[in-house]
Amino acid sequence: MNQITRIFILFIFCLSSVYAQSDNFVFSSINVLQGLSDNQVRYILQLPDGRMVFKTSGNINIYDGARFKYIHQTSQDIYSLNVYDGFYRIYQGKEDLLWIKDHHKLMCVDLRTEKYVSNLNTYFKKRGFKNAIEDLFMDSSLNLWFFTEGKLYREDYSTIIDLSNNHGSLQDVSSCNNKLYLFYNTGEVICYDLKTKNRLYSIAAYQAKEQEIYRNTSLVVKGNNGFYQLRNGSKGGFFFFDVHKKSWKKILETNYSLNTLFVNSDDKAYISCTKGFWIINCKNGEKRYLPTLKKVGGSILNTEISTLFYDKQGGLWLGTLNQGLLYNHPSRYKFTYIGRSYFSEPHIKDVIVQAFAEDKNGNIYVKSQSAIYLYSDALKSDKLTVIPSKSVPREVMGKLNKTNNKTISITDIRGWIWTGTQDGLKLFEPKKRKKRIFYTQDGLSNNFVHAILEDRNKNIWITSSYGITKLQVDAVTEKIHFTNFTSDEGTLEGEYSDGAAFEAADGTLYFGGINGFSILKSNNMISEKLPFKAVFTNLFLRGVKVESGKKYDDRLIMPQSAAYTKNIEFSYDQNFLTFEFSAINYKNPSQTYFRYQLEGIDNDWRETTVGQNENSNTILKISYTNLPHGKYKLKVMTSNDNQKWNGSISELQITIHAPWWKTPIAYIAFFILFIVLVGSAIYTYTFYSRKKLERNHREEILLIRIKNLIEQRDFLQSEKESYLTQNSIHQTSSVNTINENHADNAFLTKALEMVEKNLDVSDYSVEQLSRDLCMDRTGLYRKLIALLDKSPSLFIRNIRLQKAAALLLEGELSITEITEKVGFNSSSYFSKCFQEMYGCRPSEYAEKTKKST
Q1: Any transmembrane segments, and where (predicted)?
Q2: Does the pLDDT at position 295 exceed 60?
């Protein structure tokens, strides 16, 4: 390098130091374009599950890192606070309630239903407050205190403190070591013993003549050894009260209002104000003031910071008066983004960074389509200055021209050949003769590949039309792991250039693109596990979003909001389900990985790849269709490194009820019904079998009796004279018996003769038989039932069938002729009646009778 070049570079370094900033805060914007309800942010806090709450002028916004959920209010949700004349304060109580104070107004949000508690007047009366609540506070132990009628009530009524003798207006309450500290607009702090409820002492932060300066508003935050307090009036003041020394200390005084205070565990205070914010190390007194804010890309923002908050992930949130939210995390921007504003080429619409090169002194040269720039870590200016071509060392110029060949193919240390295309990344493994191609669904940030680079750690870096992808190959399994980096981590917001990827001697990586380039230092790749487990945010039933407190198919599925739901029950036909979870990853959203398992369906964990998640990398959607009834457990894990799964597991118990016909009670009922049916069938079969046997038996008896009648008629005739010769007593008795039997036999004989006489008359009926026997039909019926246990019609039919059986045995007539001869009108009816009486068809009777004899 010649002397002129060295002087020129030294001049640039000196010039840049004039513009150097003392802070490296770079903020990302989150505003109405990303879903914030409006850009006037008033208050910020974080829920225990990691979600953020932003109170804007128009709404309550709940943010899960990807989406905003709004909680709307009506005039019925506002309760009048007569005493409170400050600005927005939000307290999160123990009952999952958010208490929101504004100037003379109080609202309450139930986080479990994500709705405002309407009619707070009724709510307070139910809790035993007969008089109106004048103000509300929360101490350091998250106990609510209600102020009314000169008394301070703890929410559980365990402590009541009379404040009627105190002077001034109560503005804040806090607690420490079983003592309650009350902060008044006079600048006094009054300490009470919570056990005895006695007043212990009172100490003012400033003299009485300064009371008018700081009397308007107050904000108290508990520190390690006391309380920090912001006070406002005609001036702004930041004070500290040491509870051990019982003394006040003024830390900061300004001529403008100080809006919001946050103090971390190291007693570092962050104070928002009308322009920018303060950072004060309360241990050593070091103060830094940032009146302007730098955004990603290099633009400067000058606005009022209405509120600020440090989340549990280490990120700083700034709420502005009209610019929405700003977010910064010290390790979020792994990449340094050198954007369009750094390039002094106003006459060119787009600056295209084409190549990088390094000289012997470690200086980096950046080539665009029209100029060459110098970059070094010592260069902290907001501008890159063009270096004339003649001042660029010859070897550097050669490298710049050589590396500008737009090569999008490399062979890595394994011998694998990687080739970038406009639609995917190709891989060829020569030893296995194996070809593969990767797309966004496999893990790429974008399918259009612009450059490929292998670093000294054997990682493959891919630049694309959107973001950068790092590929890591497992040395044992050769499984490829993808990690994506987008503008959330400091990469370009636009497209990268072909072949513009470079690794410096110290391991720093440079990636060039449209209107800038990205820089990654090797020590910026350390990842930390996510502090929160995945939060259940939404449920979809058959594609329809399920709202809490609403019935679907006459079933209340989620009585509470999704984040507070741990058990869900569905009916048997509500089994087309989609579950949505958020990773709560504000720091590095693109480095978010999920895995999940539905116990009872999935045999093992299912892992998702970055790019597969819809709309945002921090949102996971899990869908299951036609789930059978049963009990399941859905488990979800998150990580910012898909090779490490060391976080907590979110669990959701799911029950899909069986249809009524598959419930245990139904099975028992079906079993009982089966037993009843089987028993009924057996009983019916037994009953009719017995009846059939009885009928056959009666018919057999009838035949025997008819034969006996005929034999008895002959017998009586032959024995008649012998009966007449017996002694008179014996003769009288026998005659009576014989006469009785003879009368019955004579009746049956005559009835038999009448039927046989009219056997071929098909319409010979019971009426005709009764007339032939000189009897009425009822008498005939009773007589035959008494003698034969058969009705007259059955008596006639059986005689016809007996005659038919005799004719069948003779075998001289056909069945049709026999049918007509015995008085049946139909052969089918004759066959049916014959089979009922003899158990076989007429055609089978003769052969069956011969076999039986």
Answers
A1: 665-688
A2: yes
